[in-house]
Amino acid sequence: MNPLLSIENLTVSARKEGQWTPIVKGSNFHLAQNEVLGIVGESGSGKSVTSLAVMGLLPKGILQVTGGSITFNGNDVSALSQKELRKLRGGEISMIFQEPMSSLNPSLKCGFQVAEILQEHTSLSSTEIKAKVLELFSKVKLPNPDAIYNRYPHEISGGQKQRVMIAMAIACNPKILIADEPTTALDVTVQKEIVLLLKELQQQTGMSIIFISHDLSLVSEIANRVVVMFRGDIVEQGNAKDIFNNPQHTYTKALISSRPSLDVRLKRLPTIQDFLNDTVNTAEVTPAQRAEDHKKLYSQAPLLEVINVEKEYMSNAGLFGKKATFKAVNDVSFKIYEGETLGLVGESGCGKSTLGNAILQLDKATAGKILYRGKDLTKLSDKEIRELRKEIQIIFQDPYSSLNPRLTVGQAIMEPMKVHKLYKTEAERREKAIEILHRTGLGEEHFNRYPHEFSGGQRQRIGIARTIALQPKLIVCDESVSALDISVQAQVLNLLNELKENFGFTYIFISHDLAVVKYMSDQVLVMNKGQIEEMNEADALYAHPQKEYTKKLIAAIPSS
Fold first, then answer.
1. Alpha-carbon gap, residue 511 to 525, rounded angstroms
2. What is the pLDDT of residues 21-63, one digit of tens each?
3. With contact defined as beta carbons under 8 Å apart, do 284 and 266 qualify?
4. Which H or E run contains 208?
5. The whole model's pTM is what?
């Protein structure tokens, strides 16, 4: 049987300084009918560019197909007119993008956006279109389809937005669905729901799926076959089980091993570079070593005590416009010790970041005490809080939006030093900033560059460099590795652990990635609906979760 889609010797080139440079280099793969094909690789490997070429969506003048062919259902895609391509998109081949918020129009209601697809590709009446949209919303398991039909994207959750995108993509019963990183920004439980939904829809409709991700564990849950891409080349492809159980290429082995294991606690996570240089260190932290470390850690006085903390918000959602109260954090108490990493996990909206902001005094708690070295932070004056900023810092999720694009990297690192009057002269501050750049795996050559000149992983290093410039004692890491590729994530986690050893940092590590939290943490605190659901030593909590909610979170972790 002929494949539904054939990619033969595909070369896609990017225009750089007037020259066309290949970024996808002679790719060959096919997609059969009723098959799920996983394409894995990191940012810049060529995964998304390949999918855009299939859809005929390469930006003109920037990217173009410079060799090979794309054949869909026996027809050469590159030979199609714009009118034929429009008919193909949405009708025969559909795509779900990584970020539903930026893919959905914020000024149009969800129902209308799906209806538009049906107006374009079918001859259904407006009444039939509405009925079809509601049927699609039920199919993708959206709660209360009638209500969501009339809601704007900002009024629904991230997982619900992604379901609207899936409804839009399957509206015209496409033969191929391309899912480009469809679960990257989602909670582990929502991620699992989306993967199960795609599998279910694929079995019901018989459509083929190309599932693109940098997460091999996730791809293992859905794909029949896998294509591995690295720097524009396909380095390995074959049956999913064979690739996961017996990878042949060094890069594939590295991708599988860079993700923290739930079974083994390595002293240092292996990175892609370690595998390419054959310098992988497999030394483990034994339970006895960990127990000894914890004995010392918990014999001291706590650095921070959170006592019965609450954070309440007012809303106008009450009946007849009356103010209603919502408790984002509800009676939370815990202690953290100097040199400890406390993991904070839970689904979106559970109160993790709100609690972090209350500790940082960025958003005042409504009730309770937050004692730092015995001093109640909730009672400090503005001047005292400004002085405290030197001791308690934060590493944000998105380093690009947290760095000033107009300041060079050196200026960004030196700025907090000036504010807190560290070091006497500009020359001393510069010297210290360069030392910090070296500490975080960057160099003096990066000092005068701007944030936009760096990759995501490098920007996160710059964010970390800026944070540690003040030599703080307590650092809140709020989803600080969630947007990074697997191997870059491994580098940043290794860096955080190295800095903790060298400087004695204490971390509150907030994340929805439970495998990462387990690897990083001494203790883990599970939050649900503003309250602490469960708290225990990290290994013990994952091995023997007590609460149903914790069991559900752990069960949703993709297994490679």
1. 11
2. 999 999 999 999 999 999 998 888 899 899 999 998 899 889 9
3. yes
4. strand 208-213
5. 0.84
